[in-house]
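R.M. (postdoc): so does anyone remember the format we settled on? I'll just put the structure tokens first.
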């Protein structure tokens, strides 16, 4: 059956109008939807499930059962797990829903568990998993439920190199088995080879669609898919927190991180000097986030180790704010935990105060700086919108 969308119009929450004039997707074709953050990719993919309220247009041939694997789906499940956390009512930590319970009956998806190397996680709570681990679990859960169409929205986001390779191979096998899939991406180099057709979305308009190579070679697609801003255009910070070039930003001495019987690392010595740029790599679940949390102050084991941050020894009377003022942090977990009800501009300003939400009057300089940065990333026109109304990539 062919899914057809003709002369569609739908008003989005930000006031824009989704426009799809003529688009047909045949069963024999495998489509990808591409576009920059906030372009409307996800809402376009939601057309297949009938989740978009249309003001006009005709739709036919939709699949009966559509499932999504996405960052948003992860966030919703993690939020549900948080609400069901009963640690306060128990004499132990509530680890939440076990992976084996989410994937029950496990024997039906044992091959996929083996392919994605999830066997050692079956008796762990879902909320304890890393970003990459939870993504793979959600994929297996979706496969278990045998959808007519499986939509993969940025499926490689947050995965380490080894997990990406595993997932790409598994998805290739899934495609070869006959599973219909729809791939949503803002990075062209992440499109798998088995995607045969592409739909290009910009500013909520389906601007171009057709055979893969035809769309990828279009000059308009190349022009609109690339963000390029000269470094000289970046505004200077209001306050310069830089230390002397000879002062380490981070120094760890014989550091040890242990959770119960599990030791993540022991005897770690690490020094980060001004001007250095480090990549922290390792498999999902290896302890990368735990190590970073020693620096950000979000891991209480920082007080059990000899740790120096920005010229201060941890546990010597410094406050957490003395540490955090030196740090800018972006992560999936922070985004999931950012539950403050605030608009886009206020969210950016709050970064200057190291807070989740803004709880004091911001100065004019703070506001101007935040507006300049929103202009740079192309979000100035959304400054007064709710943060949670933005697409995941825009957030």
């Amino acid at each position: 059956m062919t899914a057809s969308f003709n002369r569609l119009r739908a008003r989005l929450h930000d006031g824009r109008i989704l426009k799809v004039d003529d688009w047909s997707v045949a069963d024999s074709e495998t489509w990808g939807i591409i576009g920059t953050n906030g372009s409307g990719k996800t809402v376009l993919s939601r057309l297949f499930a009938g989740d978009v309220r249309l003001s006009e247009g005709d739709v036919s041939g939709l699949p009966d059962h559509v499932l999504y694997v996405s960052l948003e789906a992860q966030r919703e499940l993690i939020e549900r797990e948080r609400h069901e956390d009963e640690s306060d009512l128990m004499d132990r930590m509530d680890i939440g829903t076990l992976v084996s319970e989410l994937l029950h009956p496990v024997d039906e998806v044992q091959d996929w568990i083996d392919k994605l190397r999830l066997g050692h996680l079956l008796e762990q709570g879902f909320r304890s998993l890393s970003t990459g681990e939870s993504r793979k679990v959600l994929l297996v859960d979706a496969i278990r439920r045998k959808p007519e169409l499986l939509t993969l929205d940025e499926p490689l986001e947050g995965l380490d190199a080894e997990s990406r390779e595993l997932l790409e191979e598994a998805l290739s096998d899934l495609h070869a088995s006959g599973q219909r899939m729809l791939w949503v991406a803002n990075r062209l180099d992440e499109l798998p080879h088995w995607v045969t057709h592409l739909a290009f979305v910009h500013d909520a308009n389906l601007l171009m669609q057709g055979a893969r190579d035809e769309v990828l070679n279009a000059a308009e697609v190349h022009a609109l898919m690339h963000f390029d801003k000269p470094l000289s255009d970046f505004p200077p910070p209001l306050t310069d927190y830089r230390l002397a070039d000879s002062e380490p930003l981070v120094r760890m001495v014989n550091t040890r991180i242990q959770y119960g019987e599990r030791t993540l690392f022991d005897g770690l010595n690490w020094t980060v000097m001004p001007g250095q740029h480090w990549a922290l790599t390792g498999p999902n679940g290896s302890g990368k986030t735990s190590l970073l949390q020693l620096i950000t102050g979000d891991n209480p084991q920082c007080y059990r180790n000899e740790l120096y941050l920005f010229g201060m020894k941890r546990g010597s009377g410094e406050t957490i704010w003395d540490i955090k003022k030196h740090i800018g942090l972006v992560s999936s977990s922070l985004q999931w935990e950012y539950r403050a009800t605030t608009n886009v501009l206020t969210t950016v300003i709050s970064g200057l105060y190291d807070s989740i939400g803004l709880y004091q009057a911001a100065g004019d300089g703070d506001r101007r700086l935040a507006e300049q940065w929103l202009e740079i990333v192309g979000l100035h026109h959304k400054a007064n919108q709710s943060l949670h109304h933005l697409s995941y990539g825009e957030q």
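R.M.: ...and that's the designed sequence above, right after the tokens. Also worth knowing: The chain is about 30% helix and 20% strand. Confidence is low (pLDDT under 50) at residues 87-93.
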